[in-house]
Amino acid sequence: MALRYLTAKVAQQIDEELMNSAGAFSLDQLMELAGLACAQTLAKAYNKEKYPRVLVCCGPGNQGGDGLVAARHLGMFGYQPTIYMPKPGSKDIYKRLHKQCSNMKISTLPPEVSPDSLRDALSSSDVVLDAIFGFSFKGPVRAPFDSALQLISSSRVPIVSVDIPSGWDVEKGNAEGVGLNPDVLISLTAPKEGVRSFGGRHFLGGRFVPISMAEKFELNLPNYPGFDQIVELPRADSQKL
């Protein structure tokens, strides 16, 4: 059976069940596993010898938390991550994850960084990890994110997007044409409807999904190789959708 692509409603329902009494996961656990999968995907696609400098772009929500976890793991992997937060998150978990990165001596661009400074950061980066917006994003893209997405897009630096490329609708994709166009995508739990036609390298990171939940939602998840947290999916143009 074919891998299931999720609507926003089903993706939200799965997240809720993972963290309620049925799934029994904490948010910290899920962020740690998701962020590790994101870091492993970037390392798989862009080796540290050729692409050591990573600009990790984090939004203020849970997607940004995944990015902060990924930044820490990338530092552990031997990369040189720098964190960029167009709007820092205010929750305690977000602040703790950022502190963990600071303890790893991972630098963060100053708040309200100027467009010129962001351009400079992009020009001195080898790859971007996009963890700005998640599957709950609803347009339009507002300040300060609109200018950030434009600068990231125009930089021509390779992009790895987390779960859904920033600016994309979870079900309609990049219909408005304002979202990022990543080279690599790491879907979490299961891919979302809006990325069915994504043509770049596509990975799945959802090894934390319990068997009972995968069966209940008929996710039809692929097997993960060995002890990897990720599995690469066939390209959109090589399969019937």
Protein model, in words:
- The chain is of the alpha/beta class and 241 residues long.
- The protein has a single domain (8-234), classed as Rossmann fold.
- It contains seven helices and eight strands; from the N terminus they run ααβαβαβαβαβββαβ.
- An eight-stranded mixed beta sheet has the order 3-2-1-4-5-6-7-8, with helices on one face.
- Helix 3 packs parallel to helix 4 (92-103) and helix 5 runs parallel beside helix 6.
- 42% of the residues are buried.
- (6S)-NADPHX binds at residues 62-66, 134-140, 163.
Q: At the third CATH level, what is the topology name?
A: Rossmann fold
Total beta strand runs? 8
Total number of distinct structural domains: 1
Strand order of the largest sheet: 3-2-1-4-5-6-7-8
Q: Strand content of the residues, in percent?
A: 5-15%
Poorly predicted spans = none
Helix content: 25-40%
Q: Compute the gyration radius: what is it?
A: 17 Å
Oligomer: single chain
Give me the strand/helix succession.
HHEHEHEHEHEEEHE
Shape: globular
Number of helices: 7
Name its key features.
single chain, 241 residues, alpha/beta, Rossmann fold, 7 helices
SSE layout and pairing:
Elements: H1 8-19, H2 27-45, E1 53-58, H3 62-77, E2 80-84, H4 92-103, E3 107-108, H5 115-123, E4 127-131, H6 145-155, E5 159-162, E6 184-188, E7 201-205, H7 211-216, E8 231-233
